[in-house]
Amino acid sequence: MRNNFNPWHQVTPHTDANDVVKGIIEIPKGNRAKYELDKESGLLRLDRVLFSSMYYPHNYGFIPQSYCDDHDPLDILILSQIEVVPLCIVEAKVIGVMRMLDNGEADDKIIAVAAGDPSVTHYNDISELPPHMTTEIMSFFEDYTKLENKTVVVEKFFDKETAMEILNNSYKMYQQHYGELHKWFFGK
């Protein structure tokens, strides 16, 4: 039986707060498994186990109803004191973005804090994070694919305003790419 629910297309990303989005977790923090959304079924699939002895430093997933140049939804890294289970919807306050190139292609990562976690909700912009935290994030993404002979270059971290522009552009790209199909298939 085919799964008729696809979180990429059917979860509304917006909340009552302009800077809070719904992120869908694919990979819990502290994990070596690289799970990805199977675009057709809406289920998670195991892409691979990381070749490096590294673990995701924070919860990692995507923002529904977003689309980027890499033909995937926009990635989101959600900081929290806990590991969040895969396919959980997490309301997250956007605080910045990490611009990076993955094998020469743009692959932005929105940086956010779990809105329901009092240990991180006081952060409002990436500039407020402890320097070691951004260094740790950058180091993970630069190094986790080296043993796979892939090249990742972290260009720079940008502020909340830049992150919101990238997010809004990804919503527009989604509408351009999936708008009519979305209305026809899901009736919305």
UniProtKB/TrEMBL annotation:
Keywords annotated in UniProt: Cytoplasm, Hydrolase, Magnesium, Metal-binding
Pfam family, one: Pyrophosphatase
Known EC number: 3.6.1.1
Chief location of this protein within or outside the cell: cytoplasm
Gene Ontology CC: cytoplasm
Cell compartment(s), UniProt: Cytoplasm
Binding residues annotated for substrate, in chain numbering: 34, 48, 60, 144
Annotated Mg(2+) 2 binding sites: 75
Residues annotated as binding Mg(2+) 1: 70, 75, 107
A molecular function GO annotation: magnesium ion binding
Cofactor(s) the protein needs: Mg(2+)
Entry-linked InterPro entries: Pyrophosphatase (IPR008162), Pyrophosphatase_sf (IPR036649)
GO-annotated biological processes: phosphate-containing compound metabolic process
Catalytic activity: diphosphate + H2O = 2 phosphate + H(+)
Enzyme class: hydrolase
Gene3D superfamilies: Inorganic pyrophosphatase
Summary of subunit composition and partner proteins: Homohexamer.
Protein purpose: Catalyzes the hydrolysis of inorganic pyrophosphate (PPi) forming two phosphate ions.
Family: Belongs to the PPase family.
Full protein name: Inorganic pyrophosphatase
Name of the gene: ppa
